[in-house]
Every structure is written in structure tokens, then in C-alpha cells.
Amino acid sequence: MTGVTLTPARRIDARMVAHDWRWARDNRGAILAHWETRRAERPAMFNGTVLMLRRWDLADGVLTVDLFEAEYAALTALKDWGFPDGSVVNVFAAAVPRTRDGTFVLGVMGPHTAAAGRVYFPCGTPDPTDIGADGRVDLAASALRELREETGLVAPEGPDPGWIIVRDGGLMALLRPVQLAEDEAVVRERVAAHLAAEAEPELSAIVGVREHADLDPARMPHFVRHYLAAVLDGS
Fold first, then answer.
1. pTM, to two decimals
2. Residue 187: Cβ-neighbour burial (10 angstroms; 0-12, 13-18, 19+)
3. C-alpha R_g of the chain
4. For residue 105, which phi and psi values (nearest 5 degrees)?
5. In this structure, are residues 108 and 206 in contact, taking their beta carbons and an 8 Å threshold?
6. pLDDT digits 0-9 by tens, 140-155
7. What is the pLDDT of residues 107-121, one digit of tens each?
8. Pairing of strands 104-109, 203-209
């Protein structure tokens, strides 16, 4: 899987900056037309405010990122059109839960979501609720909130696991390992109960990965498969 890089980081320092995203401004008409087409397919999609990456630097194990506010419609068009603007990056934090007996837990995106049917780690694009009063963005809290909201799982207390930065073209996934205290069977029951209790759950099912044969090129994004393959190889 060429073109994907994995880099460890012990901490992330994310902060908000003001930024005029010229590509989005110049292409606003086409972006909104594309959004209406996407919404016709997935009426539940909402054009809210998301945070995107303008600049980043990694030094001494600390990833420093500058984030700015953008419309979700613009981010959607950027991704759907193959990242034509290289001045910005689609960044998000994701929890990577692994059961006590070694199974990675991923979710199948629900039919009402923009990525319906795709298999991801529990995650979500950061938004203004992740911004603190000081302008800092707590991406660890964002990742763990998405884990709880999507699966009902709560990360146990313990040493800081750090991060793995996955770069894949215009995408930067910030992966936060979460070591669960229960075996796969118990975790599956807990997640199933959580999904059954939701009126419109974000996930339609969960998927377990224990070995290379469990990697699904048809449904798992490139960065997900690359990360899991690397961990399963022990690298």
C-alpha cells in the first residue's frame, strides 16, 4: 500500500486560526450544487461547520496543527473530487479499540451517513464543540467522544497511549489506540445493545479484525487497511 505513512507522536497540540479558504470561496457554486446532489442521495446529511487543517509540524514527538472552520459541504466536495486543493488537509481523530483477546473493533457506517457501508474506526470530523475557551482543540476528547457515541464503549483509564499519524494524500488520520478490558464476545454484546437502543445509530454493525484475511479492500479505506496491516505485521 504505497503512498501511506505512519508516524508516532506522543502529543498533539491543536489550535484554531483564522483562514480564508480560497479554493472553497472560488468554487462555491459548484460545491453547493454538488452538495444538493449528495443530499438527494442522503437527506440526513447536514452542512454544518467542521475543522480542517491549514498547517502542521512534527518535532520531538509533538504534532502541532493549525485548524480553521469550514463548511462540511466544501470538505465533502474536496474529498469527492480527489483533493484538488493541496493547501488544506482533511484531518480527524479516531479511536482504535482493541479487545483483550486481540481483536480490533471497527464500525460499518449506517445507510443514512455520507460514507454508508464503509468500515472505519469510530471517528468524526472535529467541529466547534471541540474548541476550548483558549482556542485549543482537544482531539483526544473528540476521538473518545465519537467512540462512546457510536459504540457505547468507554476507554479505560491508564497510561497515555500516544498517537499514530497516518498520512494518505489529502487525508490525515490521528489514531488513538484504546486497549479494552473485555474479550471480543463481550464487546460485541455491549456494542450490539448500544446500537439497538439508538433511534438512528451512526453504525449499522461492527466488524472485528484479528488477521490479514479480515482486511476488506472493498469497504475499508486505504489508511485503515494500511494501519491494521502494519500492526498485524508487528511493525
1. 0.92
2. buried
3. 17
4. -110, 120
5. yes
6. 999 999 999 999 999 8
7. 999 888 888 899 999
8. antiparallel
